[in-house]
Amino acid sequence: MIKAAELPDTIAIFPLTGALLLPRARLPLHIFEPRYLQMLEDALKTPGRLIGMIQPNEVPGRNGNGLHTIGCAGRVMQFSETEDGRYLITLGGASRFRVIKEVEGFTPYRRCDVAWDGFDRDLGPEEKDPGFVRESFLTLLGRYFDARELSADWETLKEADDELLVNSLSMMLDFDPEDKQALLEAPSLSTRRETLVTLLEYQLRGGQESEMMQ
Predict the structure, then answer these.
(1) Under a CB-based contact definition with an 8 Å cutoff, are residues 31 and 87 in contact?
(2) Residue 172: which of 181, 180, 162 has the closest Cα?
(3) 54 pLDDT above the threshold of 80
(4) Confidence of residue 144 (pLDDT cuts 50, 70, 90)
(5) Of 43, 27, 24, the residue nearest 94 (C-alpha)
(6) Cα separation of 4 and 89, whole Å?
(7) Are 44 and 87 in contact (CB under 8 A)?
(8) Could you report the per-residue pLDDT of 90-99, keeping only the tens digit for each?
(9) Distance CA 65, CA 39 (A)
(10) pLDDT (0 to 100) of residue 208
(11) Strand 10-15 to strand 50-54: parallel, antiparallel, or no bridges (unpaired)?
(12) SS3 letters across 58-76
């Protein structure tokens, strides 16, 4: 686990709409663009092997650099190269960060100066959710899955730890990018679970059609 003192002031940024990485979670990625292949190569040379996942900000006038203010850095945990030079990697969520400014330089990918203040909990142990009523949550989730004709391993869902369950669903379900950002910015596991419940209920009331990401 990365310690606070080991977090760098500047990190590579990978803007990707709809992709959500959360602390202590895992995100598989397919890297094939030359600039991001270079980003991966450079990240692997650093002690932390960190890449900052962040969503583009598509709301006009909100942020001049076209990025959301908050993202999540992930450590390259696994990587494998395909025969044609692409990479399949897995990022392990380390900590959220706040963008201070974009750094001009000679790399083909973007880099930002970032602050880690306010996200100390991300570097700690797994979070608990004392107010989590799993039975009612799974009932709501079942209604959501049924409405979209999705299947799930319910035994695994019933046995999963609070954080693993809430964070995995937050990352996998195909919510709008702004909804994904709200899940990322939730200050605690409890508020993320409450946000997730609100989004599920909204979809069931006739919100935009969603499907689970394959």
Answers:
(1) yes
(2) 180
(3) yes
(4) very high
(5) 24
(6) 24
(7) no
(8) 999 999 999 9
(9) 19
(10) 46
(11) parallel
(12) CCCCCCCCCECCEEEEEEE
Closest CA to 193 of 113, 114, 134, 123: 134
Take residue 135 and report the two structure tokens written for it.
């039975």
Is 59 a residue whose pLDDT tops 70?
A: no
Q: How confident is the model at residue 61 (pLDDT cuts 50, 70, 90)?
A: low
Which contiguous run of DSSP H or E holds residue 194?
A: helix 189-204
The pair of three-digit structure tokens given for residue 98, joined into one six-digit string = 């706040």
Q: For residue 140, give the H/E element and its range.
A: helix 134-147
What's the CA dihedral at 201, 204, 134, 213 to 10 degrees? -110
Residues in the chain: 214
- Of 191, 67, 84, the residue nearest 199 (C-alpha): 191
CB-based contact 114:97 (threshold 8 Å): yes
Q: Which amino acid appears at position 180 of this protein?
A: K
Interhelix angle 162-172/189-204, nearest 10 degrees: 50
